[in-house]
UniProtKB/TrEMBL annotation:
Superkingdom, taxonomy of origin: Eukaryota
Matches recorded under Pfam families: Casc1_C, Casc1_N
Family annotation (InterPro entries): CASC1_C, IC97/Casc1_N, IC97/Dnai7-like
PANTHER family the UniProt entry points to: DYNEIN AXONEMAL INTERMEDIATE CHAIN 7, LUNG ADENOMA SUSCEPTIBILITY 1-RELATED
Biased composition range(s): Basic and acidic residues: 10-32, 302-325
Region (Disordered): 1-32, 302-333
Residues annotated as domain CASC1 C-terminal: 460-628
Underlying gene: DNAI7
Name by which UniProt lists this protein: Dynein axonemal intermediate chain 7
Signal sequence interval, chain numbering: none
Residue span(s) of domain IC97/Casc1 N-terminal: 24-224
Family per similarity comment: Belongs to the DNAI7 family.
Organism: Equus caballus (Horse)
């Protein structure tokens, strides 16, 4: 039907519609363009305002920079002051030892220690119990010498003193081991009188806090007696037939300390570096003293001329009075200046020493033999097990009411196993490796199964060859392995097993007392620091509380760090550690400044790990900070501020720990400063700042020292 047909659009109407659509499109494009331009202009204006604001902040920071750095310099005088106290303590140590009058020699005095060694060498026929009693004094003397070498900064150590102390340590170690051998020989001469009624062989166990001795003498030579076990324990040996039928004795001397590993040399690079700075400051001191002396002479000359030109008696008397006042003030001035120069000298040397603690070695130790243990990567733990097969000496024989014994001139002799030459070509079957079972020291923590190393006397290093079939029972703390040749063996663990750290936190506990918590993949270690002392507060291994003999014992920082390392709790990187651990490298100068200033603030502020520290520049560090004045337990989700520090500039970040992306944008209504101290001062309470200003010098120094040695900013 005609009514249902669609009305045709005319050509003109179609053109009009197309024109309207084109005009609408152009209008929309124009509006979009104008909107975009407006937005771009607004963005540019915002950026311009931000740049202007940034320039104003930089100008403000520059204006007060010198003032802030001067104030920081005065606050950081605590480090040279603490070093002065430590020097005084070291100087007084000889006097303190003298007034103790306990009869023991002073190990730092060459004449006293040499006399002690000579007199002990003359003592003969000492029993094992007597040697153990004397060994406590000897070990104490060795520990004192090692502590002096560790506690004395390299710039205060002379080469001849280092040589003297290390020589004394080696002499004491060798003499002590020689005494143990002689005492063993005396004990073995009496083996027949100490024989067990059941087995007919002699077995002896002597235990002490530093030493455990296991001795077995083969008197019966029963070929079926192959399993040697001490005192109903699993500790012992599985010996081959040739040993079961020989006149031999087996000795396991477990020294709970390591006196086999060579002493580490004192870092000479540190001595050279710090001595350069010391010489520069000393030159400056001499120049200033010369200038002051010249000035004083000129003042005196001038005053003399003035007094001679005055003829009136009254004026002359007045001028003489003025001269005396000026002379006294000039004489007082050199004393003050000299004191300031002394502090500057100590400050510069301490600064250089702290900086070099953070510098990484450029080359990895490479001159290692095959199977040699790299002592930069591994640590010996639990002492040394001296395993020896000894020739049984002639036995005591009763004769007419006397005990007669033949004493061999050559003394105690080792039984060579396997022999150097043999006509039997089936050596593998005749002289098989000996199975050894040892007990791991109870005060040592192994986070993984320990590795066994043997001492190579010829190469003077630990090696891992000649050892097979190692198995470890962690519950019983027993390790079993096969050993081809006897000699000293030790257990080793990767020194960096607890690195890098997963997180860390430094929190105030009380006046001049903080808690440093370091969480690793295996453990959570909490360390308390107060004044010049440190203590292991607690340790968790695999989220379970672990008891340690070190808990609750306050020690000086150096002694504490040594004790932690010896217990297997090594969280102290060395110059070579970056070769064995993936680290978050930070520029040493920035890192050092951060630790020093964190220590300054540690009385009133808590610091913590931030995930953004991994993403920022290597010239910058990022960490959490918040004021903490109360003694309460840490808050579950505290309100942390994020600070970024480059060594020269500190700023509070706009982002928080839970932001999606990292940004260096400044938090609103905040400024940046030249130091961390002035940065936190912007949002700190007066109580917090007062607490910081009244902090103990030794406490700040100890906190800084612990942060420098744990390196939480680059090893987390």
């Amino acid at each position: 039907m005609p009514g249902n047909k669609k009305k045709k659009i005319s050509k003109a109407e179609r053109l009009r519609q197309l024109q309207e659509e084109e005009e609408r499109r152009q209008k929309e494009e124009e509006e979009a363009r104008l909107k975009y331009e407006k937005e771009e202009m607004e963005k540019l204006e915002i950026k311009r305002i931000e740049r202007e604001k940034w320039r104003q902040l930089e100008a403000k920071d520059l204006e007060r920079r010198n003032e802030e750095l001067e104030e920081l310099y005065l606050l950081e005088r605590c480090f040279p002051e603490a070093e002065k106290l430590k020097r005084e303590t070291r100087l007084l140590s000889q006097w303190k030892h003298y007034i103790q009058c306990d009869g023991s020699p002073d190990p730092s005095v060459s004449q006293e220690i040499n006399t002690f060694i000579s007199l002990w060498k003359e003592e003969t026929n000492e029993t094992f119990e007597e040697v153990i009693g004397k060994s406590k004094l000897v070990l104490n003397l060795i520990d004192k010498l090692k502590l002096i070498l560790l506690e004395t900064p390299p710039y205060d150590l002379q080469d001849k003193i280092v040589t003297q102390y290390q020589g004394s340590i080696l002499e004491l170690q060798e003499l002590l081991h020689c005494k143990f051998n002689t005492a063993t020989e005396i004990l073995l001469r009496q083996a027949s009188t100490l024989a067990d009624l059941d087995s007919g062989n002699m077995e002896k166990v002597i235990q002490d806090e530093n030493i455990t001795l296991y001795v077995w003498a083969n008197l019966k030579k029963n070929p079926r007696y192959r399993s040697v076990r001490f005192s109903e324990t699993q500790i012992g040996f599985e010996i081959p037939r040739i040993l079961a039928t020989s006149d031999i004795a087996l000795r396991l001397l477990h020294t709970h300390y390591d006196q086999v590993t060579p002493l580490r040399p004192v870092p000479t690079s540190l001595q050279e570096h710090t001595s350069t700075i010391t010489n520069l400051v000393r030159d400056e001191e001499k120049n200033l003293e010369a200038a002051i002396s010249k000035e004083m002479q000129e003042e005196c000359k001038q005053e003399e001329n003035e007094s001679n030109s005055v003829h009136e008696e009254e004026i002359k008397v007045e001028d003489q009075g003025e001269t005396e006042v000026k002379m006294s003030s000039v004489q007082e001035e050199p004393e003050v200046t000299k004191c300031e120069l002394e502090m500057k000298l100590i400050s510069e040397t301490v600064l250089a020493a702290q900086l070099l603690l953070l510098e990484n070695a450029h080359e990895k130790p490479s001159d290692l033999d095959d199977n040699e243990v790299d002592l930069c990567q591994f640590t010996t733990l639990g002492g040394v097990y001296h395993l020896d097969i000894l020739e049984l000496p002639p036995q005591c024989k009763p004769m007419k009411g006397w005990m007669v014994v033949e004493i061999l001139k050559e003394g105690l002799q080792k039984y060579i196993y396997p022999p150097e030459t043999t006509e039997d070509f089936e050596t593998e079957y005749s002289f098989p490796p000996i199975e050894v079972t040892l007990e791991v020291h109870e005060n040592v923590i192994f986070f993984e199964d320990p590795m066994v190393a043997r001492w190579d006397a010829e190469g003077k290093h630990w090696k891992t060859d000649g050892i097979s079939n190692v198995s470890y029972k962690s519950e019983e703390r027993l390790i079993t392995f096969n050993l081809e040749t006897f000699g000293p063996v030790t257990l080793i663990q990767d020194s960096h097993i607890n690195m890098p750290y997963q997180s860390w936190e430094l929190r105030p506990l009380d006046v001049n007392k903080v808690l440093l918590s370091v969480t690793t993949i295996f453990a959570e270690i909490q360390i308390q620091i107060k004044e010049n002392l440190c203590m292991l507060a607690s340790i968790k291994v695999n989220n379970k509380k672990h008891s340690s003999i070190l808990e609750g014992r306050w020690m000086t920082p150096v002694s504490f760090i040594t004790a932690l390392k010896e217990a297997g709790l090594n969280i102290f990187p060395t110059r070579h550690s970056h070769f064995y651990v993936i680290i978050n490298y930070k520029v040493p100068l920035t890192e050092m400044k951060a630790y020093r200033q964190m220590a300054l603030l540690s009385s009133a502020f808590a610091f913590g790990w931030s995930r953004w520290n991994m993403l920022c520049d290597s010239k910058k560090v990022v960490f959490k900070v918040r004021e903490h004045l109360r003694k309460e337990e840490p808050i579950e989700d505290p309100n942390w501020a994020l600070l970024m520090f480059s060594g020269d500039r500190a700023q509070r970040l706009k982002i928080d720990e839970y932001s999606d992306t990292f940004s260096e944008a400044l938090k609103e209504e905040t400024e940046f400063h030249s130091t961390l101290y002035h940065m936190v001062k912007d949002f700190a309470s007066e109580e917090a700042m007062e607490k910081i200003r009244s902090s103990n010098d030794q406490f700040i120094d100890s906190v800084g020292h612990m942060l420098l040695l744990t390196r939480v900013l680059s090893y987390s």
